[in-house]
Specification:
12 helices, globular, 27% helix, binds thymidine-5'-diphosphate, 21 strands, seven-stranded mixed β-sheet, binds magnesium ion
Length: 456
């Protein structure tokens, strides 16, 4: 090999986003991360001078047999729903989350019940010893016969074990610990993760098992190392939550086989994760119905209506610029709603600090919670509680109109099931909405109308 070729194989790669560079840089020009470049040796690639004969010719799409392979149900209701109805055979799923949030526990529980139904399952751990995993498994019950354990970090060894054992499902905990024999870089670096991810993808797609990958998350809350991994896999899930409160939310970021709005709710108990059977009731359990600054919104997370309490607090701002602090809601959206409140409903929060949050620590992105945010702010500012049995839904436009929401009737029924007797719904939704018996449905066309309706 010439000296020039050897030199060409060394390059610097940003460990945050995967941006390559021929020389070391203090700041990544692509993602802006500081001090993120590390030297990596690239694997030699075969020269592309000769055109190889295709090993598999292209197929006509209409000649491809459409075999709907059944999904593998893990038995964890919430997990299956977030996946879009179960695990698709041959798919690659990435689960990200903070350390200690319960990723290993969740996956071990999932493979426990898969193995209990007789499916061969391989659990590969590069982080914990067999003894440590066995200790954890002890808290979840007795391990089924068809659950196999492998403590290994070399990806070629793992692929060898998969080829020999032919499991239906494989868990790899975690992708950051794997090493590829062609790579000289340290485990967890971008090139290692990319190569190992690609090797596992090729294995899954070649009629192989469904593979569940665990990925660590950085301080900033994105999957550590590579974004490349997110593009590679079929499904990306995030497992998050408040460690103090013991609840966990499983959320989809990408799903080639289902909706990306689904959330699954779990509670961490002494014997593993338990699904929260009635999330709305659970989210509202600490609500004080007569408190000013609190409004209940009916949001639709994926296929499931969820009642969430929006809390607002306004307080006189003493220093310079009034503050706006938001948790669980979109910051820009909240600022926009404050402007709409001022211009379209005459409620000014100009000299006030405004704090907004979703009770229970959930984050909601649906615009249908706009109306609840606006009403909560108005309620806090005037120190007047909203009626305790009122639930609201509606998107607020810049003009102060209330826009229609999808599936208003389902939302109303969910509110009724939880004992709410009155619902504020967008005016345009009223036309095709069957009122559930015993429920008072009030249509509002503008923000000003909504404020008048809650006052009356
Ligand atoms: P773990 O699955 O190891 O987290 P991760 O793989 O995301 O790093 O979860 C660890 C936490 O969960 C740990 O603090 C102990 C707790 N835990 C329980 O509370 N109950 C249980 O049954 C188990 C297995 C763990
Ligand atoms: Mg773990």
């Amino acid at each position: 090999m010439s000296a020039r070729q050897a030199k060409a194989k060394l390059q610097f790669v940003c460990q945050a986003c995967g941006q390559p560079s021929p020389k070391w840089l203090g700041r990544c020009p692509a993602c802006g991360a500081w001090n993120s470049f590390a030297e990596e040796r690239q694997a030699a690639r075969p020269s592309s001078a000769a055109v190889p004969a295709p090993s598999r010719p292209p197929l006509r799409l209409n000649e491809v047999s459409r075999q709907e392979t059944g999904r593998l149900r893990t038995g964890l209701e919430e997990f299956d729903r977030v996946l879009g109805g179960g695990l698709v055979p041959g798919s690659l799923v990435l689960i990200g989350g903070d350390p200690g949030i319960g990723k290993s526990t969740l996956l071990l529980q999932a493979v426990f019940s898969l193995a209990q139904s007789g499916l061969p399952v391989l659990y590969v751990s590069g982080e914990e010893s067999a003894g440590q995993i066995s200790l954890r498994a002890g808290r979840l019950g007795s391990a089924p016969d068809s659950l196999w354990l492998l403590c290994e970090t070399r990806v070629d060894e793992i692929l060898g074990a998969i080829a020999a054992q032919r499991p239906a499902v494989v868990v790899v905990d975690s992708i950051q610990t794997l090493t590829h024999p062609d790579q000289g870089a340290v485990p967890g670096s971008v090139s290692q993760i990319r190569e190992c991810g690609q090797a596992l993808l090729a294995c899954a797609k070649a009629d192989g098992p469904a593979i569940l990958l665990v990925g660590h998350v950085t301080k900033e809350g994105v999957l550590a190392g590579p974004r490349v991994l997110e593009h590679l896999v079929d499904t990306v899930l995030y497992f998050e939550g408040d460690r103090q409160q013991g609840y966990r939310v499983l959320r989809t970021v990408k799903n080639r086989f289902g909706s990306t709005n689904e959330v699954g709710l779990f509670e961490m108990t002494a014997s593993g994760l338990q699904a929260v059977p009635d999330p709305s009731r659970w989210l509202l359990k600490e609500r004080h119905p007569g408190a000013a600054g609190s409004a209940v919104a009916v949001s639709l997370e994926g296929t499931r209506p969820l009642l969430v309490e929006i809390q607002a607090l306004t307080a006189t701002a003493y220093f310079g610029m009034p503050q706006r602090r938001v948790s669980g809601l979109d910051y820009n959206r909240c600022c926009l709603l404050l402007a709409v409140l001022e211009r379209r409903a005459g409620i000014s929060v100009g000299g006030q600090d405004v704090f907004l949050s979703v009770a229970g620590g959930l984050s909601v992105t649906e615009p249908a919670v706009d109306l609840a945010v606006a009403l909560a702010v108005a309620s806090s500012l005037k120190d007047q509680p909203l009626p305790p049995s009122l639930a609201v839904m509606g998107e607020v436009s810049l003009g102060g109109d209330i826009r229609a929401v999808s599936q208003a009737e389902r939302r109303c029924r969910e509110a009724q099931q939880l004992g709410f007797q009155r619902c504020l719904v967008p005016g345009p939704n009223l036309a095709d909405l069957k009122t559930p018996p015993g429920m008072d449905i009030v249509g509002v066309a503008t923000l000003a109308e909504a404020l008048a309706a809650v006052r009356g």
